[in-house]
Design goal:
The chain has 224 residues and is an all-alpha fold. The protein has one domain. The chain contains 9 helices and no strands. The chain is globular, with a radius of gyration of 18 Å. Keywords: Signal.
């Protein structure tokens, strides 16, 4: 068992990052909760409610597509959930800015900022949104991996989308839609929201969650 844990730790260290990522799933544009007024909205309190959460072994297996047992799916699911949170964030950024949802995944094409001298705010956003891991050239994910993960997060932790909706809409209401506003929204996410949500993403690696999973492993039927 410890060999599996060590392999997963190495895999996680190599592939995991907290960069803001792109998304190309039309179905992810739907929102789940009404925006709270800023006077009643406490982001830290919302985050505290789900940052102590853990996933069960069955959650991991289902999020992995029921393709393998728990030991072989937990590493991938942790990486998937990190990206899924970023995908939800990008979909709410688009909604706040009035941009349409993106189309299906495309091949990754790295562009230079100089190419966007006359780009519209939406084209500039798409440039900032591009991410190889969420493209047809990804070596880790398939596009179909994400809808189940997004559905799970929206149903189990609706506060995630509610946080994004509230913060991004507040920025949009106070500013015109231009490059500066695009940067402001993305910076609020990457610098202020994402670091606070990061502990939530590490379901398996949190010590408390790990012990719960290990205890459940002793009681549940072994997956094959």
């Amino acid at each position: 068992m410890w060999k599996i844990i060590i392999i997963c730790l190495c895999f996680f260290a190599i592939h995991s990052n907290a960069d803001t990522t792109g998304e190309s799933l039309n179905s992810l544009n739907a929102s789940t909760s009404e925006t709270s007024s800023s006077s009643l909205f406490d982001m830290d309190q919302e985050i505290a409610q789900f940052n102590t959460s853990c996933l069960s072994r069955r959650d991991f297996i289902e999020l992995g597509g029921n393709l393998t047992g728990f030991h072989f799916t937990n590493c991938f699911v942790n990486l998937l959930m990190n990206k899924a949170v970023d995908v939800i964030a990008n979909s709410e950024m688009r909604a706040a800015l009035g941009f349409p949802p993106p189309g299906p995944w495309k091949h990754y094409s790295k562009r230079n900022l100089e190419e966007l001298e006359f780009a519209t705010p939406e084209e500039y956003f798409e440039f900032k949104e591009e991410n190889k891991k969420l493209s047809l050239d990804s070596e880790l994910y398939y596009e179909h991996n994400f809808p189940p993960a997004i559905k799970f997060l929206d149903e189990r932790f609706p506060a995630i989308r509610r946080i994004f909706k509230n913060r991004f809409n507040n920025i949009h209401r106070a500013n015109p839609i231009d490059r500066e506003t695009v940067d402001a929204i993305r910076n609020v996410y990457s610098d202020h929201i994402r670091p606070k949500i990061q502990p939530f993403n590490d379901f398996f690696w949190k010590k408390r969650c790990f012990y719960k999973l290990y205890e459940s492993y002793q009681d549940e039927p072994k997956d094959t």
